[in-house]
């Protein structure tokens, strides 16, 4: 049988694909632009859009499990096609589904959790990959400019998210479960900047922004006002689950969760002057 990965070219989707291949699974990857997917040759890449279920006929055929994202369209708007997508999956005989939590209840997650599928919800906290947003400034000035630099985060490696999805999609015992996925340690912005500095061989300093300065920067970058407000809220008072190490990753994977120090070494070239 085949495992279907939606959002297959995204930060997490690529990791899910890779981890499934490592397990010897056949993978079908759904993406809006198959010609630009850049996935391994053994992956069956198909074109399609979760916001347009009528164009997905046959995509679920022969599929044993599906990894689903909860957003689509512009600005990561929640998918409104959950009931139709779940009906198509059930009609095709799909058995399992993982749902990548999108920050709140969504129509797709509600549809999956109310279905006959063996579902698992994955709730990752801050992605380590989010630190790539700092890369241009670090390359240019060796500086990270952030509000609330003492804020705490149990950020998780995206590879661990993909690995947990692969486990839930291919092994028994995860139906009806919701897993909070974190890294193995709690870090401040100062900690993360120091780790990147060690990885690139050149220090990185932290410049603290006021809430007003950060808001103006985000607005200038095109963020909607509700997004600006959300960031100020979570950065100023990080939810407990976002700053608490959870044992789900090591329990699922049988190994320690990956550390940010490891992530920084893997991506050191992205923070080096002259590299895009």
Automatic annotation (TrEMBL):
Superkingdom field: Bacteria
Alphabetized SUPFAM superfamilies for the sequence: NAD(P)-binding Rossmann-fold domains (SSF51735)
Domain NAD(P)-binding: start-end pairs: 7-97
A UniProt-annotated Pfam family: NAD_binding_10
InterPro entries (alphabetical): Ergot_Alk_Oxidoreductase, NAD(P)-bd_dom, NAD(P)-bd_dom_sf
Name this protein carries in UniProt: NAD-dependent epimerase/dehydratase family protein
Species for this entry: Streptomyces albidoflavus
